[in-house]
Every structure is written in C-alpha cells, then in structure tokens.
Automatic annotation (TrEMBL), chains A, B:
Any one Gene Ontology molecular-function term assigned to this protein's record: rRNA (uridine-N3-)-methyltransferase activity
Domain called Ribosomal RNA small subunit methyltransferase E methyltransferase: residue spans: 73-236
Family: Belongs to the RNA methyltransferase RsmE family.
Cellular compartments annotated: Cytoplasm
Enzyme Commission numbers on file: 2.1.1.193
Catalytic activity: uridine(1498) in 16S rRNA + S-adenosyl-L-methionine = N(3)-methyluridine(1498) in 16S rRNA + S-adenosyl-L-homocysteine + H(+)
Domain Ribosomal RNA small subunit methyltransferase E PUA-like: 20-60
Uppermost EC category: transferase
Source species taxonomy: Bacteria, Bacillati, Bacillota, Bacilli, Bacillales
Protein name: Ribosomal RNA small subunit methyltransferase E
Chief localisation class: cytoplasm
C-alpha cells in the first residue's frame, strides 16, 4: 500500500489534511478517490491506515482508521559514512541502503575521491538525494526517513558520538580474523557508524585515522564501493531482525 | 589486480598463451607490457599470479609465478532462482549477486512477470548476461564464474537436486518467526536454492508450490525484487565466511 509521511501527530477518527506535494501524488499520480486507503507515518513515528474522506481541488482530507503496531526500523541505528561515488552509483547506494535500514548518511571527502563538488552543487545534490531517500523509505515501508548531509575530510570526523564505528578496509579481504561475524554483538538502541571507501579505496591514513575504529572484512570477495553498505546492513538485519 | 579465467591447467614456471578476447583486453584495454602482472584462474579453480613474458601481435605469453592459497568462494553453493526484472535492474542484480558470491542463476517465468521473451531474444540476452557475470567475477576476484540459464514456470521446477530451498515471500515481512536467522545452519558444501519474486510479487501458488520450500522473511522492510538476493547472499556470507 502507498505510504506517506507527515509531521502531524495523528489520532484515530480525527480528520487531517495531506500536505504539500503528497497531495499532487495522491490526486494525479495515484489517482486516489474518496474511500481509497493509504498508510501515513506521523511525527511520532506511528503508522496509521488512513481513508480519504474528501478531495477538493488541491486539498485531500483523510481519516486515520487503524494504528499499526509493527516497527520496520532496525534495533541498532546505523549511520552510513560514505564517499561520493561516480554517476548513478551513489544514488543507487542511497536507495538500497535506505531499503536495507540505514538511519542516516554522512558524505565525506575521500583522499582518493574522484568526484569533487562546490557548495552550490552540494545543495542541489542534497535536494535530489533526499527525494531518492524519501521515495525508498515509502516503498520499503520505513517509519523514519534517513537524513543526509555533507561532512568534511574523514580524518576530521568526530566519532565520539557513536557507540561503535566499523570500517571496511579492502586490504583485509583475506584476513578471516576480521570477519564481521567476529565482532561483539551490539545492544538494542546502540548507534553504529559504518565507513567504506571510494572506487580507489581508502588510504592507510583514512583506514586508521581513529583508534576507536573497528576494522572488518566483508567476506573474501572484493566488493564494489557501492556494495559495501548493503553487505553490512544485510548482516545487521540478519542478526538483529 | 586484473583477473582473468582460463580452461588451461596452469603450472608454476611453465609458459602459457592468453586466449581469445582476453588478449585484446590485455593489449588494448589494460595496455599491459612485458613483465606486467595479472591473476589467472585456471581450469582447476586455482589462482595464479602471472607475469607477461612476451607480446607479439595478437599473442600474449605469460608465466604463472605464484599460486594463491585463499579461496574466495562461499562454503555453501547458492543458486539464485530469479524472475526476469524490468530494464537494467536484472543485469544489476546479476552483477551484484556475483560479487556477493552466487554460484549459479536460473531464470524462471513468474506468474506476474512483466517481461516476456521469445527463444531468440533469450539466447541474445544470455550472451549479454554471461558477459556481465564474467566481468563481475573478475572484478570481485571469484575463482568460479557463475553459470546462468533459463528455466520454465516456477511450479515446474524440480528442487530435489538441492540440499535446501529457501523462498522469500513478501507477505511474511512482519512474521519474525520466519526470520532468516531462525533457519538451521547449513553444512559446508551443501547446495542451496534461493527463490524470490518479480516486481508484482509471487502468487500464492508459487510461494507454496513445493513442500520442500523453506519460507523466510528478509527483515521487516519491503525490499525491491532485485534487492532480495543481495540480502540473502550477504547473510550467508556473514554466517559462513
């Protein structure tokens, strides 16, 4: 079923109005009519089954009729600390990582990064990236839309805010003692940062820039840059969901 | 390092010639010269570090100088039984699943499949798909190139050749008792089939067509069709590698 997000706090059998561009989507894209239903995630991250009770010009009025109890969010919060990637690979990584449960994205300037952006370009990109993430959140039935922003050089990152920081370093593909499954289990609610390198790989300086980093290998094969977060997120989901 | 595949059985310090289109790749794409090195996987699935000792017109002669001992293949053999998917999504799934360790692909005709192909088209597609898989195998340092072919309707599949067959059924996204991590562990060398549905999902008939099927959910979020095998393969790699 189609899912939307609102900042409102919904209540059963109280009427609400759909905001902004979702109105256009409901009327012109989905071509919903009165009595059609959709899912709405409200400001409290609760999910409601909603029924359209009135459509007038650009105003859609709806009624939350049922509250869902199941959560689709990972018990551990995973922030993906990612380099810019060439072409469509980056947006693809955002879409998939959102599907796979990432809670946030921070883009860093990799030493070997091929893509360089000025601030004007960055702002434009963020608008597009947020749309990709929002659509993937709706499609995969997330209750949270992951945020995304630009950070600086990896070495300037302050990781103290994370309970754990895991970094995938290609050089370790054959060191089984660094397998992801050798890591201690994390606790529900803990915050994780996952760092991976660009097409050209991480430099040694980046791979060891913080003593808190836990270096892992993602299996014995060499994954493309954009594949690394999917391997990590799938494994986290496998363990904790 | 660049990796190629050969049917020859290599031996240290014996000279060999590069076959067919790899010759073009070495001379014109990689622009290798005498003394440059690459990796070659031979017919016995052994990996050798090789050195070019002569390049003449369209003939590249090389010398295996070192044999690698590490395997990059999964201890369990995973066959991906997949529907045709729209547009580039299918080739993308093949590339990623190869990276993530799949050992074989069988394409089935899904009840809700959007894409239909006649035999002539199928043959053309297979040629392209095999190239995608071969390149992903080289890039991810596989020692086996996964095979791919077309099967018929899912309900006509004979699964008796597999030790286990796992099927992902979207309807179960919220049934935690079907989480992948509730499955018994598989033994090294066992053969696994993993089945997932097309964009429109599996029909009930397909989801339960064989009593040997083990139904699983791939986390609580709704994954796009092409994402399902990556979640499964990552989890298998997490457990067994």
């Amino acid at each position: 079923m189609q899912r939307y997000f609102t900042q409102d706090q919904l209540n059963i059998n109280e009427t609400f109005e759909v905001a902004g561009e979702d109105t256009h989507h409901i009327i012109n894209v989905m071509r919903f009519r009165v009595d059609d239903t959709f899912e709405m995630v409200d400001g409290m991250k609760n999910v409601y089954l909603c029924k359209i009770i009135n459509i007038e010009e650009q105003t859609v009025t709806y009624l939350p009729v049922e509250k869902y109890e199941n959560s689709s969010e990972m018990p551990v919060r995973v922030t993906i600390i990612c380099p810019m990637l060439k072409g469509e690979k980056f947006e693809w990584m955002l879409q998939k990582s959102t599907e796979f449960g990432a809670s946030e994205f921070i883009i860093y300037e990799a030493d070997r990064s091929i893509v360089k952006l000025d601030d004007k370009k960055k702002d434009k990109r963020l608008i597009r990236y947020r749309r990709v993430i929002k659509e993937a959140s709706e499609q995969s039935k997330r209750t949270v839309i992951p945020d995304i922003h630009f950070g600086g050089k990896l070495k300037q990152f302050d990781l103290s805010g994370f309970d754990h920081t895991v970094i995938a370093y290609e050089g370790n593909a054959h060191d089984q003692s660094l397998s992801l499954n050798r890591l201690e289990k994390f606790k529900d609610g803990e915050s994780l940062a996952f760092i991976f390198g660009p097409e050209g790989g991480l430099t040694e300086g980046e791979a060891g820039f913080d003593t808190a980093l836990k270096t892992v290998r993602l299996g014995p094969r060499i994954l493309r840059a954009e594949s690394a977060p999917l391997y990590f997120l799938s494994s986290m989901s496998y363990i904790y969901e």
